[in-house]
Structures are given as C-alpha cells and as structure tokens.
Specification:
CATH superfamily of the largest domain: Response regulator
Number of helices: 10
CATH architecture of the largest domain: 3-Layer(aba) Sandwich
Order of helices and strands: HEHEHEHEEHEHEHEHEHEHEEEE
Number of strands: 14
Number of domains: 2
CATH class of the largest domain: Alpha Beta
Shape: elongated
Strand content: 15-25%
Radius of gyration: 27 Å
Strand order of the largest sheet: 7-6-8-9-10-12-14-13
Bound molecules: alpha-L-arabinofuranose
Distance between the termini: 87 Å
CATH topology of the largest domain: Rossmann fold
C-alpha cells in the first residue's frame, strides 16, 4: 500500500512538473507572438463626435474598416455623444494610454487649444478629420482631411440662382429659411456663410435661420415652427439630408407641397450629403431639388496620412476631398463657382 502510494505521488509530481513546463513554454511563446504583433500594430485613438446623422454612421464605418487590425492598427474608438467635453476626456485618455496617433473628428471648431497642447507635449501626432479646429497654434495638429463646406454652400446657391433665373423667378420672390447644422461646427459655419453671401449678392430674402443639429427630428420641429411663423417661405436650405427628410415631413404634414414651383405655392428643399438612401430617393423624385455631396469615406484617407507620418513624411496640412453636385432637374447643366465649373450629376 505504502509503496503504491509513493509511486502514485511520484507520478503525480512528475506530471505536474511536465505539464507546468509545457504550458509555460507555450504561454511564453504566445506572449512573444502577441508582443511581436502588438509591436507591429499602430495604436490609434479615434474620437468621433457622435452619431447624429447617416453621414456620421457611414463615416464611422469607413474609419473602423480602414483602421482595422487586419490593416495593421490597434484602434481605440470613442463616441463623444455630441459633447465636446466627452471628446476632450477621450483625448486625455488616449494620451495616458500612450497611443501612437490621435484622430479627432471635432464637434465644433473652438475649445481645443489646451487638450491638443497636452497631446503635443506628450509627443503624439494628431490628425483632424471632417470638421476643422480653430486653434491659435496650427502646429498643435499634423494635418486635416475633409470637405470644403463653404464651397458646398456656394455650389447649392449657385444652382438655386441658375435655376430661378432659368424659370424667370425674380430674386425678391425667393424667401428662404435655413435649418442650420450644429452651431459652431465647420459644416454649419461654411454652409451658412455660403448662403448668407449668396443671398446678399443675389438679393434673396433670408426669413430666418435656426439650428436643426443635423438631425431629422430637429429638422421636422424647426420646419414646423417656420411654417407657423412665415406664410411666404418658398425655399428651405437644409444643412444636411437628415434635416431635409424631417423638413419634408413637416411641410407635407402642414398640407403644403414640396416642389420647384416656388411662385406657385410649392416649397423647394435643397440639401447636403447625398448619403442617406431616403434622401437620395427624394432627390430622384424631385422632392429635394439639389444636393451638394459631402463625402464621408475618410477612413482610407486618414490611414494614408498615418502611413505618411509613420514613414517620416510630412503630408499636406490641409487635404480637401472633391465632391459632386446632384439634381434630377436638367434645367441647369453646370454651375461656376470661383472660376471653376461643376457639372450637375444625376442622382443615382
Ligand atoms: O461634418 C459633416 C456633417 O456632419 C454632415 O453634413 C452631416 O450630415 C454630419 O452630421
């Protein structure tokens, strides 16, 4: 009995020792492999501003896809829920985590100086995507990629001018309301400026402008209140497609007709983005008369900027994407803005 017990104990000890040796060897090999992979991955902290629109969801998808593990990235993604304070907290967290790069899609232009200074002090390059930041020291970020929002506004208003001229509608008969985007964001600032300048140059009447925060719900609410307040509104300039969808619903709920016969009682809707399928369908039907494209596919562009920085290159500071202008009305073939002509594309 005693002999058997001793043998069993020896065998048990042997097996524990062997198993232990084997697993620790495998573990350490795994750890080495992980460390190797971890070392090759570029760690990026991405602060997205929110999920207010279809444009934003498409933009987030593009970023997540391009900065994926398969593409060599270890991405830390944070949704700011439309609050700049959340985005600032996220950036501070990225700094603590010692990420290799920070990518920021800022909710608004101002208020970034301190946190971007902290990132610079920590030696982490920052890439700005989509909207811009308005900081005193432009060296606080490496580069930016996104749209020329004011140009988008100029294109839509150039189309409106050409269309009304073609139809013989005089400028004083154009009564516009503007459903603005999130106040203080580059998209809002640029598009509102594009409208304000065109209205002044062409003698159009801007009845009112109120923010719809780039959402369908606010677009509907703001349009409903405009309709209660003004009986002569005949053009609604929506600073994105989600607002346009809401505005169309409000117009129809009020028993009014959406269309281009603006001296015959219809209300014309113009908009921005060209991403949301419902809005594209409205454009095909002519309910949205003109859409300036805003391109959300920035993921691969940001990845190229990171690759350039990573290989010691200095990419251009400002990187604009080229964008189209859509309408299903063939009365206007092209518009010319700042000496450049843009063909009007059919909505697909
Ligand atoms: O900054 C881009 C704008 O933000 C898009 O036009 C809008 O849809 C989004 O919310």
């Amino acid at each position: 009995m005693r002999k058997n017990a001793m043998l069993a104990l020896v065998l048990l000890l042997l097996s524990v020792t062997l198993t232990g040796c084997g697993s620790s060897a495998v573990n350490s090999q795994n750890k080495n492999e992980e460390a190797e992979i971890g070392q090759n991955l570029i760690t990026v902290g991405f602060s997205q501003l929110g999920a207010e629109s279809d444009w934003r969801s498409t933009n987030t998808e593009s970023m997540l896809e391009a900065l994926s593990q398969e593409n060599g990235y270890n991405l830390i993604y944070k949704n700011g829920q439309q609050k700049q304070s959340n985005q600032i907290t996220a950036i501070r967290m990225f700094i603590q985590q010692e990420v290799d790069y920070i990518v920021l899609a800022p909710a608004m232009e101002t208020g970034w100086d301190s946190v971007l200074y902290e990132a610079k002090e920590a030696g982490i390059p920052v890439i700005i995507v989509d909207r811009r930041v308005d900081v005193v020291d432009k060296n606080l970020y490496s580069c930016w990629v996104g749209s020329d929002f004011e140009l988008e506004g100029k294109k839509v208003t150039a189309w409106l001018k050409a269309f009304t001229e073609k139809k013989g509608i005089s400028p004083e008969d154009v009564h516009i309301v503007n459903i603005q985007g999130t106040i203080g964001s580059t998209a809002q600032i640029g598009r509102s400026r594009g409208l304000a300048n065109a209205a002044r140059e062409n003698g159009w009447d801007i009845l009112d402008e109120v923010s719809g925060d780039f959402t369908e719900t606010r677009g509907r609410e703001v349009m409903a209140s405009f309709l209660r307040k003004y009986d002569n509104v005949n053009v609604v300039y929506c600073e994105n497609d989600n607002e346009a969808i809401g505005a169309i619903e409000a117009i129809e709920n009020a028993g009014r007709k959406v269309g281009t016969n603006i001296t015959g009682g219809e209300i014309m809707v113009v908009s921005f983005d060209g991403v949301n399928q419902e809005a594209i369908n409205y454009a095909k039907e002519g309910k949205i008369a003109c859409i300036a494209e805003c391109n959300p596919h920035h993921g691969p562009r940001v990845a190229s900027l990171i690759e350039a920085l990573n290989s010691g290159k200095t990419p251009d500071k400002f990187n604009y994407v080229s964008e189209k202008l859509y309408s299903s009305f063939d009365d206007v073939e092209y518009v010319t803005v700042d000496g450049i002509s843009y063909l009007i594309d059919e909505v697909e």
